[in-house]
Write a structure and sequence with these properties.
Helix content: 25-40%
Oligomer: single chain
Structural class: alpha/beta
Distance between the termini: 32 Å
Radius of gyration: 19 Å
Length: about 325
């Protein structure tokens, strides 16, 4: 790995705002590394990290390369990403000396969808938004995962209430093992690791965008807002996922106590790490947020399936 990167964050950037050492950090890094090592051994040549190029994904890529685990790294270029997001692919390749697989939606299918519904069809209805995600994300993901037995993601329990029961590994609908090594990491942990190891990250994180998706579907969030409230912010409270599995999963997420707590207090919320920073693009007061609707479909069915079937026995996280 090269180390001649320019310092990315200004004085009030993400690292300055969020990075801090917390109790048990070294243990969580060791556990995440152990999960990755075990996954790499068990699924040698058949495992891939699927990264959206957010800071969690960048931390995972750093862990994979730093420990020479031989796990492939892949991303999906939806065709609507911010330029800052797309620019991370060549930066990863130059920094770490690896090739990043880039998978894209089918051009003809995209052209037909846009011709029929317009460039910003996702704003017209929840159904069209889901169709857009299906076309641009889920279909390319199915090709990306073809022939593979496992994948690695940056899901964390702290990201939302809907993700509060994410396990370190689980089965997806195709029977593949999905590893979530950072499940018990906090936002402070992520940025502390990034600062320690000079991990490249999307400069949009410096603009109060903790969750970054396609450009038309992402905006900065307000202090106190959920991590994913800047995604599909126009969707109302009534715009819920319509399946039983999502409802079951949401109830389980509310009932389950998160595995890690800060300073003897309660759940370490996403909001807690934003401090008193001035935030751009605050949520309009007349916009309600639909917690279960803040998914594009990449992870919903897998986690919902965990409510019906037990995930494989997972490695125990350090106390």
């Amino acid at each position: 790995m090269t180390t001649d990167r320019k310092l990315r964050a200004p004085a009030a950037g993400a690292i300055a705002l969020y990075a801090r050492a917390t109790h048990g950090f070294d243990g969580r890094v060791a556990h995440a590394t152990a999960v990755l090592q075990s996954a790499a051994l068990e699924h040698a040549g058949r495992i891939v990290q699927v990264t959206s190029l957010g800071v969690e994904g960048m931390v995972l890529t750093d862990l994979i390369v730093r420990n020479q685990l031989g796990i492939a790294v892949a991303t999906i270029d939806t065709g609507r990403l911010h330029p800052q997001t797309s620019a991370l692919v060549p930066e990863i390749e130059a920094r770490y000396g690896i090739a990043v697989e880039v998978h894209r939606p089918q051009p003809r299918a995209v052209a037909r969808f846009v011709a029929a519904h317009g460039e910003d069809a996702m704003r017209e209805s929840l159904a069209l938004r889901k169709s857009c995600c299906e076309l641009r994300k889920i279909e390319p993901l199915s090709r990306l995962l073809a022939g593979r037995s496992a994948w690695v993601t940056g899901l964390r329990r702290e990201q939302s209430h809907a993700r509060a029961v994410v396990s370190f590994h689980e089965r997806d609908d195709a029977g593949r093992v999905k590893f979530n090594p950072l499940a018990d990491w906090s936002w402070a942990d992520i940025w502390h690791y990034a600062a320690q190891h000079d991990v490249p990250y999307n400069p949009l994180h410096d603009e109060f965008m903790p969750s970054i998706g396609c450009a038309p579907c992402t905006r900065a969030i307000a202090v106190g807002a959920d991590f994913r409230s800047g995604r599909w912010w126009w969707e109302s409270e009534s715009a819920k996922e319509c399946g039983l599995h999502v409802s079951v999963h949401s109830r389980a997420a509310k009932a389950a106590a998160p595995s890690r707590r800060e300073g003897g207090g309660g759940f370490a919320s996403a909001q807690a790490d934003f401090g008193n920073a001035e935030v751009k693009g605050a949520q309009a007061p007349d916009r309600s947020q639909s917690e279960t609707a803040k998914e594009c479909g990449l992870h919903v069915s897998v986690r919902a399936g965990a409510a019906k079937a037990a995930a494989p026995e997972e490695l125990e996280a350090p106390a």
